[in-house]
Amino acid sequence: METIIFIIALITCIALALSLTETILGFRTIKKVSNIAPLPKNKLPKVSIIFSALNEEKDIEAALNSMLKQNYPDFEIIAVNDRSTDKTPEILNRLQKLHKDKLQVIHLTHLPNGILGKNNALHTGANLATGDWFLFTDADVTMKPNLLAKTLSYTINEKIDHLTIFERHLSNKFWMRVAYLGQYITYTLDFKPWRIRFSFSKKYLGHGSFNLASKKSYKATNGYNAIPMECLDDLKFGELIKKNGFKQDVVDGYGYIEREWYKSLPGMIKGLEKNSYALYNYKLLPAIRDLSLASMFFIWPIIAAFIFHGPIAYTNILNIILTTCFVMTVAGQFKVSRGFVIFYPLGISIIQITVINSILKAYKNKGIIWRGTHYPIDSLRNSCHSRNSCHSRNSCHSRSSSCHSRSSCHSREGGNPFR
What we know:
Elements: H1 2-28, E1 47-53, H2 60-68, E2 75-82, H3 88-98, E3 103-108, H4 117-128, E4 133-138, E5 142-143, H5 147-158, E6 162-166, E7 168-169, H6 174-191, E8 211-214, H7 215-221, H8 233-243, E9 248-252, E10 257-259, H9 265-271, H10 273-276, H11 284-298, H12 300-307, H13 310-333, H14 344-364, E11 367-370, E12 373-376, H15 377-381
Parallel strand pairs: 1-2, 1-4, 2-3, 6-9, 7-10
Antiparallel strand pairs: 4-8, 5-10, 6-8, 11-12
Helix pairs in contact: 1-13, 6-14, 11-14, 12-13
């Protein structure tokens, strides 16, 4: 038995060493927004900033004002009010009167069948956009004035079709910072963001706070209308772009874009109910696999170092050292105080609890309940999860078929126009 435990520890050690090496080298290749020089204004194309808002009265005015203050020559903002019941519509209407030349407000009063609210709202906004580039963002995100000029300059210089960003998550609460650290650790291991720029890599990425896509790539893939029942709309949007052969990249936006992602730990666990299980396409075995691997890599070595002696203990102590170095690398990238590194087992445990809670709620509710709307689990499972069929370049996204799109076929070679 101890031989098996030692072999597991040795395999863990090798995997951690490789992950640490790749992470250190990988993060060094990610461009910082602060280091990007903007192009002359006459070389910057028109951009349409598009966001969906559902009951965002607390944050939407500050977010929208930061968008309106962009130091960019030609942009428009399309704000889609998605059935809000608070003061969001009034705030948007008031700001529209003050900024008629830049801001267009759309009010949605009902949700069509077979599509999630946010996905529907974003595609509705995209249908009205007149820019050469579409920036999909969220209604609680604030941006520095030169963010748009810098990121568009990067996409043009590097010939990128889709750019996403590392945002800053604001919080002074201890448990939120521990939870964020756990999130950053699992995010780094799962997505390896430095790989997404390579066409041969299967890795892809998309963040709701900042998904910047060329109009060409959006039209060719049919955008959010091609992923109508995807709870992970931002991530699956990135997958859609990547799977259709467009070039993708990520930049570090620290100091240029930020939000208070969640205000409390219970709020985060509740808020991720719809997302966590969706990462596994609502399949139980892959979720159990990752939960087990997280324990094996981040929690078991600590236990084993105390209860065993000899080679097992020494190897697991080395695993703890490697894990600490890995977490320090992640913390440095995402600007988490190094003092929080020692709490990484708690952070990982919080993420595990979040996933387990998402699984239990999905089965209890026979689907997800998100912002007052129930989405059956069978519909979510049967949506465009298939990487080889629904997201391929020549795939057909018919709503009458399993992919639920509105028009007949939107392949890159000859898709129907959506505007």
